[in-house]
Amino acid sequence: MTYRFRRLTRDDFGLLAEWLAHPHVARWWNHETSPEAVERDFGTSADRREPSEDWLVHLDDEPVGLIQRCRLADYPEYLTEFEKLTEVPAGALTVDYLVGEASRTGRGIGTGMIAAMVADSWTAYPDAEAVIVAVVAGNRLSWRALERAGFRRVAEGPMEPDNPIDDPLHYVYRVDRPS
To answer: Residues in domain Acyltransferase MbtK/IucB-like conserved (predicted)?
Structure first.
């Protein structure tokens, strides 16, 4: 299986809105799916006017998911939440991800796209020492995908959940740049 990443464009917003509306995604992303909401929340990244990168993930030329990547230092409030729970090295990155179709979950696609993005990150960000990800504790499939992609749990504690129905308990995972 070959994963390929392409920066999200406005032409992808319809597909993204469809994915965000699927119950398996909506449960954890808790995102509005109207064209205005997708434009509001993804437009500046699509235009490359903010530091966060949104990538459409293709598996063998078919779009299967979305992965976001950013430096934690570019989002100070989020960085502060991480620093309350664990050491965050300078240049550390974080990712967030979704597999678009429920029929594709449970097949290793999430794990594969996370691992491929981490591998790309070492080249794209030569000063990044680690990728650190927080996952709400109840999202077992997500944190298991991180573990299978080589991340290790380094902390746990309260963070603001994306979905207000979730408990604040998050697990923090980390993978370090290979030696």
So the answer is: 6-49
Dump pLDDT digits (tens) for 120-152.
Answer: 999 999 999 999 999 999 999 999 999 999 999
First to last CA, the chain: 26
Spelled out in words, what is the top-level CATH class assigned to the domain 3-176? alpha beta
Query: What confidence score (pLDDT) does residue 69 get?
Result: 98
Q: Hey, where are the domains in the chain?
A: 3-176
The structure tokens 């100070």 sit at 76
Model-level pTM? 0.94
pLDDT at 103 over 90: no
d(CA 73, CA 59): 30
Let me know how many helices (H) and strands (E) the chain has, helices first: 6, 7
Q: Calculate the alpha carbon distances from 163 to 59, 139, 151, 168 in Å.
A: 28, 11, 24, 10
Integer angstrom CA distances of residue 113 from 5, 65, 90, 153, 167: 9, 8, 24, 19, 27
The DSSP call for residue 159 is -
